[in-house]
Amino acid sequence: THFQEDIAFVWRAPWPFWDREILQRRWVFPLCDTGVAVVMRSFKDDTLFPEHSERVRAYIHKCGYLLRPLSVDPGGAGVEITVCQQVDLGGLCPHWAQEYITRWAVQHGITWAEELRTHCKYRRAKAEGEEAGLQEECENEVDQDILDAWW
């Protein structure tokens, strides 16, 4: 069995680029061994998510996330995340700008993964009753501008 949902969101772009909006269908499938696969693809439905005049509609041709535990032990720490995607940013975008936006997006993905790791470390320590001192570390490492850009 699998889970399916339709989602819409906006990718905030750095100046001077226009923000991108995306409508996609997302499926979640269990992997044969352990973990899950999250598979996404854009679709068109102006009644569900009409295009906004101040944004460019991007199209996700294919996107997949594989999330697998690093340990076979159910209490083991760590998750391996693998991402692969093919995206049409839409609009007129010169070659140099595509390279710039791609580097920017990759760096933001790395930053997000680091923030997720810090958050998960804090949650695990809290669950184990060892959160003393980790709250400050977690709060100090989080850049609010980055979080605002992602949410």
What can you tell me about this protein's structure?
This protein has helices at 95-127, 134-141, 144-150, and strands spanning 3-11, 20-30, 36-42, 56-57, 59-69, 79-88. The longest helix has 33 residues, at 95-127. It is of the alpha+beta class. Helix 1 (95-127) packs antiparallel against helix 2. The two termini are 29 Å apart. Helix content is 32%, strand content 33%. Strands 1, 2, 3, 4, 5 and 6 form a 6-stranded mixed sheet that branches. A hairpin with a 5-residue loop joins strand 2 (20-30) and strand 3 (36-42). The protein is built from 3 helices and 6 strands.
Topology:
Blueprint: E1 3-11, E2 20-30, E3 36-42, E4 56-57, E5 59-69, E6 79-88, H1 95-127, H2 134-141, H3 144-150
Parallel strand pairs: 2-4
Antiparallel strand pairs: 1-2, 2-3, 3-5, 5-6
Helix pairs in contact: 1-2
Helix content: 25-40%
- The beta-strand count equals 6
- What is the string of SSEs from the N terminus onward? EEEEEEHHH
Largest sheet: 6 strands, mixed
Average residue-wise pLDDT: 79
Report how far the terminal alpha carbons are from each other.
29 Å
Helix/strand/pairing class, anyone? alpha+beta
Rg, Cα atoms, Å: 18 Å
